[in-house]
Design brief:
It is a single chain. The protein has 308 residues and is α/β, with parallel strands linked by helices. Helix content is 40%, strand content 19%. A hairpin with a 2-residue loop joins strand 6 and strand 7 (145-148).
Length: 308
């Protein structure tokens, strides 16, 4: 079977790693959110793409889930000495990624082509595809004004309350060619346990994507990033409360109405399975916590079993 995953952030990267351990590169494509992309110090940074890429390359920092293990920050300290704003942590090894990406983009390469070049250079065999080659930016309306995603997430540490989200540039964007080709070719679509509002929603906001997934005639599986009312990692639960949405696996499932056939929830939330089923989805209950690489493979095997 051929799988397409929609991913963003650490949770998406973890499941993508599990799937990559049991599926050959010809059977798995990882499409990644680029709504978080920003320019720092003149460089194009793709945080979610890099998190997935570093994870599949075996380079990610195990303590944070993002960045490269064993990083140093000499360049960032020197930039600070020169008076540059350094609230967004860019390690020395990480900077090399952004320098190379920016160089490729300035040469006229698409973001897809630049991503493909980077992941091959890192020895990642499985395709990693940005959702779009066009700029789409996640903007959050907060108690201190409208903020780009990374400014809210990193600089302000998710503290300002969020009242609404928009995706600037989405209406003018197109899905990346490899994304749409993978969607046509795959038998199974997997929504990784990523934040449904700022990791998955930007992908769905690109014109044509939601319609294509609604019409998809294969199996569509979503994994909840909320366990016992709390986010496994990141601000999803806080964000749900501020947006007036129930912070639970059911609240997440409601974001996937008409887009999901099987919704995977954690054993902790087994009692919510009937609520999931009432939405028109099949509820599948298992241990969704991915604390080790073995956990990631186990969950990936479970999902493949559901698809089969």
């Amino acid at each position: 079977m051929n799988y397409l995953t929609l991913a963003g952030g650490v949770g998406g990267a973890k499941l993508a790693l599990g799937l990559s351990r049991i599926l050959p590169p010809s059977d798995l494509t990882v499409v990644v959110n680029t709504g978080d992309d920003e320019e720092f110090h003149g460089l194009h940074v793709s945080p979610d793409v890099d998190t997935v890429m570093y994870t599949l390359a075996g380079l990610s920092n195990p303590e944070t889930g993002w960045g490269i293990r064993g990083e140093t920050f000499n360049a960032l300290e020197r930039l600070k000495a020169y008076g540059a704003d350094n609230w967004f942590n860019l390690g020395d090894k990480d900077l090399a990624t952004h320098i190379r990406r920016t160089h490729l983009l300035l040469q006229g390469e698409s973001l897809s082509a630049a991503t493909d070049s980077l992941r091959r250079s890192l020895g990642v065999a499985h395709p990693i595809v940005p959702m779009s080659d066009d700029p789409v930016r996640t903007m959050l309306t907060t108690t201190i004004g409208e903020l780009p995603m990374q400014t809210w997430f990193v600089k302000h540490r998710c503290e300002p309350a969020v009242s609404s989200i928009r995706f600037a540039g989405a209406a003018q964007a197109q899905p990346s060619p490899s994304f749409m080709q993978a969607l046509r070719d795959c038998d199974t679509l997997v929504f990784c346990p990523s934040n449904p509002f700022v990791s998955v929603a930007p992908i769905l906001a690109v014109p044509g994507v939601r319609d294509a997934i609604e019409r998809f005639d294969g199996v569509r599986i979503a994994v909840s990033p909320i366990v016992g009312g709390q986010a496994i990692k990141g601000p999803a639960a806080k964000m749900m409360g501020e947006l007036g949405i129930e912070s639970s696996c059911v609240g997440v499932a409601k974001q996937y109405l008409e887009l999901c056939d099987i919704f995977v929830l954690d054993d902790v939330d087994a009692d919510r399975a009937p609520d999931i089923e009432s939405l028109g989805m099949r509820a599948a209950v298992t241990n969704t916590m991915m604390l080790t690489d073995e956990d990631k493979v186990r969950l990936a095997e479970y999902i493949c079993g559901l698809a089969a």
